[in-house]
Amino acid sequence: MSQDIDVLVLGGAGVDTIVYVPELPLPYADSYMIDSGIRTRAGQTGDFVALGLSALGMRTHHLDMLGDDPAGDLVRALHRDRGIALTAVPQPAGTKRAVNLVSPDGRRLSLYDTSRSHPDDRLPEPTVRALAEASRHVHVSITQPCAHALPVLRESGVGLSTDLHNWDGENPYHEAFAYTADVVFLSTTALSDPERTMRRIVERGRAEAVVATAGAEGAYLLTDGELTHIPAVTPPGPVVDSNGAGDAFAAGFLFGRLNGEAPHRCALYGAAAGAYACTVPSTQAGAIGRDALLAAVAEPAQGVPRP
């Protein structure tokens, strides 16, 4: 079958309502005046990975469940406006949504509405199989119903990646994703011993590379048994929001991997893409382009070029 898709992104479509707050944690008060406004925009983890890959020139297709509701319309419009192919499976419970509280220093607290999915949700197996077989790579979000699609994806023989986000290394829900993917991303946020968790992923699964992002401290790459620190890239402007930085890192890394780059250089691409994402306000959906990314890695001491 012709592989006319570079990356199929599975899951993670939804909308976020952004609220800029004076500080986090937010002290209790009867009310707060939000002068910056409260805005709802399309873009959750799968949307941002798809956006990042597409901005880098990768042929990208996104598959997920969406509701027939205003939130779903926002997601469909985002993909249409950015030229990203989208296959939307009807979701009677409605489109996934969250509220993000963002502090002045760019930190985020997310409140996820779990009523918009159910354990028995399924993506149609024939659709998953056909799109996987037409793809060079599949990036799998850990949202429902992607867990049920993992066996079909593995049978297809396509390369897989996943992002475990703030996994604590113990929650069993994440293990199927961690031990099935060839490339695993996660955050160090909830890990007491990141290296131990990373090595366990390799030992129990099939990962060729594990990347643990650590915010301003950079990231850690485990490949071929060697753990390497990847320094953070200087952002091209003020850090206004960390939302989407991990998704941008994944997109940058996969761009390098699918272009035959070594894992360390892939991680540098990821660091540059993540740094750029931190300068994009939560209320917007933006991603670094191919030329800017290549320039950032060619001259890492100068950080990410300004757009």
UniProtKB/TrEMBL annotation:
<dbReference type="Pfam" id="PF00294">
    <property type="entry name" value="PfkB"/>
</dbReference>
<dbReference type="InterPro" id="IPR029056">
    <property type="entry name" value="Ribokinase-like"/>
</dbReference>
<keyword id="KW-0418">Kinase</keyword>
<dbReference type="InterPro" id="IPR011611">
    <property type="entry name" value="PfkB_dom"/>
</dbReference>
<feature type="domain" description="Carbohydrate kinase PfkB">
    <location>
        <begin position="9"/>
        <end position="285"/>
    </location>
</feature>
<protein>
    <recommendedName>
        <fullName>Carbohydrate kinase PfkB domain-containing protein</fullName>
    </recommendedName>
</protein>
<keyword id="KW-0808">Transferase</keyword>
<dbReference type="InterPro" id="IPR002173">
    <property type="entry name" value="Carboh/pur_kinase_PfkB_CS"/>
</dbReference>
